[in-house]
From TrEMBL:
Residues 1-29 form the signal peptide. Pfam families: PC-Esterase, PMR5N. Residues 40-92 form the Trichome birefringence-like N-terminal domain. This is Trichome birefringence-like N-terminal domain-containing protein. Residues 94-351 form the Trichome birefringence-like C-terminal domain. Keywords: Membrane, Signal, Signal-anchor, Transmembrane, Transmembrane helix. The lineage of its organism: Eukaryota, Viridiplantae, Streptophyta, Embryophyta, Tracheophyta. InterPro entries: TBL, TBL_C, TBL_N.
Amino acid sequence: MGLRLYFPLGQLLALLLLFLLSTPSLLIAAEQLEKSSNNRCDIFEGSWVFDNSYPLYDASQCPFIDSALNCQNNGRPDTLYLHYKWKPIGCDISRFDGEEFLERNRGKKVMFVGDSLSNNQWQSLWCMLHAAVPNANYTLASRGRITTLFFLEYGVSVMFLKNGFLVSLENRTLRLDTLSGSEEWKGVDVLIFNSYHWWLHTGRLRTWDSYQIGNQTQKDMDVMEAYKIALTTWANWVDSNIDPIKTRVFFQGISTVHYHGAEWNEPGVQDCRGQTKPVEGSNYPGTKPPGDEVVKSVLSNMKKPAILLDIVLLTQLRKDGHPSIYAGGGLDCSHWCLAGVPDTWNQLLYTILLQT
């Protein structure tokens, strides 16, 4: 497994000490804390509970949301999905304070690197920060594949770099041992990486025909094997180039899709259409996506600390949170309405940054 954070504070302080020493034993120590604690709290294990103080912002007041994610504006008639918060078993996560986030990251750069699910989380953070400081001066600029929201008073940059594979795609060949755009990752204070959904594309959506490692090219390879090689290339770059005293590295875990009702014990349901409530409780009937094991395996073998935002379970339970038919065209049971589920991903990110 990748690095997971647990309470109480004493254990987190011990983990922080290990982090500051930058020892390769950090991930091992985290696992030992998990096994030895009699009073632990895994912030990624829990359930969704109704809380009328949510959502954290009004989507109609956020100027940054892509139209396909603005479900209320696209005519979604129900609003119950907006009022759920994530409740870990045995503890609470910090309620997001956007002004404090900006103060703590004054003068820093925060970058999301990945596919459209990274973009989903990035837009969510934009809205959460804008709601906290609605009168703050900001600039929004694009350069190449990077879009940057800059808060002038705080000197904080919140960036998105579109890069769905992390490795290079050249002439419809995925070069599994060569990263794409890694020079852009340097000098950033908080990096949140993501890569998974593009690897699952088939048919006309598939953008590659072959794989290359070194000088060897092959047409056929198990997709999860290729994914693991690519993530290992990324992990080796982190181990070789990141100073964990200066840069925090996160990996956004796998976000669940809901296209088969049988996965949540509703075999008569075709997909996420018409879903208005989460799956109750803290257990999901369906299996975890195959990439989850790959991600945890790669992160557990890293020499430098990389923190997994393990969003698999909390997204599995939210069959109600997708744009569905309210995406401005077509059916979308992969991305997430805003306001919505990605706000919790940012709350978890915020909680971890506060504790470490």
